[in-house]
Design goal:
The chain is an alpha/beta fold. It has eleven helices and six strands. It has a six-stranded parallel β-sheet, with helices on both faces. The relative contact order is 0.14. The model has no long low-confidence stretch (mean pLDDT 96). The chain binds nicotinamide-adenine-dinucleotide. The site of nicotinamide-adenine-dinucleotide has 26 residues, from helix 1, strand 4 and helix 8.
Length: 273
Amino acid sequence: MAYGLLKGKRGIISGALDENSIAWQVALKAKEEGAIFTLTNAPIAMRMGAINNLAEQCDAQIIPADATSVEDIENLFSKSTEILGGKIDFVLHSIGMSLNVRKNKEYGDLNYEWMQKGLDISAISLHKFLQVAEKQDALNEWASVVALSYIAAQRTYSFYGDMAEAKAMLESIARSYGYRYGKAKNVRVNTISQSPTVTKAGSGIEGFDAFYEFAQKMSPLGNAKAEDCANYAISMFSDLTRYVTMQNLYHDGGYSATGISEDLVQMIQQQNQ
Ligand SMILES: NC(=O)c1ccc[n+]([C@@H]2O[C@H](COP(=O)([O-])OP(=O)(O)OC[C@H]3O[C@@H](n4cnc5c(N)ncnc54)[C@H](O)[C@@H]3O)[C@@H](O)[C@H]2O)c1
């Protein structure tokens, strides 16, 4: 059911790779809620081609941009305001990648060049988006910027490798830039900390299936789906959440506040019998 929450709003949505992507679901919902927006992804991701189907469904133009390139991001913001006919009201940062995780490099044997690349792609890129937007004065007053995070920013998850550092930095940038941009233009910046979700980025993590199941059993509501994460993002882009900023918002079915669940206790008891 649509509510017209984003009627008249202009946006930029990054990170839609295929229909499992969280950003893909956000784009579909944003369209449903009346927004117009551009889509962006790394030039290399364009080769997979699926994003063209999404663009068609959403009447959206695609502007390729490598999230590590300031020049690409400058082009992304200036083209987006031109195409959409005015300043931007919402931005989704849904970008993450660790070369160390992808190549199964252990935490005690990290390749530091890869680590720096991963931090640049997954965290510093949020700063680049915001700095470019501010310099171009590309965002409207009360615009809302949302990036996607994971609870490994607060707690250790052995399989998550150096992405934990990337998410901690991402959340810190959301706070620091949220303060700056809030003072300057009432722009708000938040992160949504999402449950494990079956996507290309998620399932690239070793042991993901077991962890997905663990989180499912730990969360009273179960793991939050990509579609529901999209609903939350839409509410954060809407005018109904205007005074929420500089927050890391858990969207995880209650996982982050649960110590241990009955389901897990039962499972362990059964194993020990
Ligand atoms: N899937 C999960 O379990 C989960 C849980 C919590 C948070 N997240 C976060 O959600 C976000 C979206 O991930 P997803 O799960 O939808 O997976 P996904 O693989 O569909 O999306 C990741 C996107 O990052 C893009 N990307 C990678 N390098 C890039 C670059 N240099 N420039 C521009 N874009 C680049 C990819 O092309 C892809 O579209 C990520 O930040 C991820 O860490 C995912």
